[in-house]
Design goal:
Blueprint (H helix, E strand, L loop, with lengths): L4 E2 L4 E2 L2 H23 L4 E7 L3 H16 L3 E7 L5 H13 L5 E4 L9 H7 L11 H9 L7 H13 L7 E5 L6 H10 L3 E5 L6 H6 L3 E4 L17 E4 L3 E4 L5 E4 L4 H5 L4 E2 L7 H20 L6
Parallel strand pairs: 2-12, 3-4, 3-5, 6-7, 6-8, 8-9, 9-12
Antiparallel strand pairs: 1-2, 10-11
Helix pairs in contact: 1-10, 6-7, 6-10
Bound molecules: NADPH dihydro-nicotinamide-adenine-dinucleotide phosphate.
Length: 300
């Protein structure tokens, strides 16, 4: 795996390089599966409507799935698609033996009940890990599909920090797709976990207690240097687009990178930190789902 790059303050956690290594590992294992079991895992991605950010994500997922040596099935539906039509497609994908992973790109248009669609996905093909069965498996320590973004954060933490046992971890954000599963994963690693959110009192003081600080908030550059314990590891999940002086925009995280880099021990940049890990973990989950569903051993 990658080594850290030393910046004047914090070590830069290079998620882009780590993700490329993980994708290459997935491709290597997919090649073994093909030769050993005559199996090529398949990922089905469903996109409803034309949300520009979702279009980019779906295109990338398709390209990287093929690059990893797996089948990619894209289903693009118009933004007028009704609930029943989408549920019928999910059902067909559940029953399709060539499909090992199903991902319904969020957000869905208003006429569709997102929870009902996520609940309709076969939990064993739920490579996003959003189904309540997988949330329950994670909470109770059973094997299952783990949401890709927090899984990517955990991989980075284990690589750069090592043993997490006994560390104080603070997760800012309590969404079902990032904050809560992140907290569960850190608990599983025997961290002492605090989940902070918009009602948390004196958030800077809570954050200053963290050896590991994960920001998944959606507020540009909210976390400042004086919120961070010197030497702490900071994982920035946020993806926010802010205006530049020339009228264009740029991506920033939930952490004020330049400010926090002066005190943190290690930090993920945005872009190039957590973001690339999400798709790499999706491919990894698809490969694992293909093996688990068929009772096959994961290639070494
Ligand atoms: P949500 O909007 O679902 O959740 C945001 C959380 O932040 C909520 O729990 C909210 O608290 C909390 N919050 C909001 N404002 C504050 C505040 N001022 N102080 C403390 N807590 C606050 O967002 P997501 O979890 O879906 O995403 C979070 C960020 O991560 C976004 O920037 C998103 O774009 C990014 N993201 C990045 C991914 C990647 O691949 N790198 C993947 C997914 C998301 P409350 O519950 O009280 O409202």
């Amino acid at each position: 795996m990658t080594d850290s790059t030393n910046t004047p303050g914090a070590t830069l956690i290079d998620g882009k390089a780590f993700a490329a290594t993980l994708r290459a590992e997935v491709a290597r294992k997919a090649a073994i599966l093909k030769q050993r079991d005559n199996l090529v895992p398949g990922l089905a991605v469903v996109l409803v409507g034309h949300d520009p950010a979702s279009e980019v994500y779906v295109r990338n997922k398709g390209k990287l799935t093929l690059e990893a040596g797996m089948h990619s099935f894209e289903h693009r539906l118009p933004d007028t698609t009704g609930q029943e039509e989408l549920l019928a497609l999910v059902q067909r994908l559940n029953e399709d033996p060539a499909v090992d992973g199903i991902l319904v790109q969020l957000p869905l248009p208003d006429q569709i009940d997102t929870d009902a669609v996520l609940a309709a996905i076969d939990p064993d093909k739920d490579v996003d890990g959003f189904h309540v069965v997988n949330a329950g498996r994670l909470a109770t320590g059973l094997p299952g599909m783990v949401p890709c973004t927090p899984l990517g954060c955990l991989m980075l933490l284990k690589h750069y920090v090592g043993d997490l046992s006994g560390l104080n971890a603070v997760v800012v954000g309590r969404s079902n797709i990032v904050g809560k599963p992140m907290a569960q994963l850190l608990l599983r690693e025997s961290c002492t976990v605090t989940i902070a959110h918009s009602r948390t009192r004196d958030l800077p003081a809570v954050c200053r207690n963290a050896d590991i600080l994960v920001a998944a908030v959606g507020r540009p550059q909210m976390v400042k240097a004086d919120w961070v314990k010197p030497g702490a590891t900071v994982i920035d999940v946020g993806i926010n687009r802010i205006p530049k002086e020339d009228g264009k925009t740029r991506l920033v995280g939930d952490v004020d990178f330049d400010d926090v880099s002066r005190v943190a021990g290690a930090i993920t940049p945005v872009p190039g930190g957590v973001g690339p890990m999400t798709i790499a973990c999706l491919l990894n989950n698809t490969l694992e789902a293909a093996c688990l569903r068929r009772g096959l051993a994961l290639p070494e």
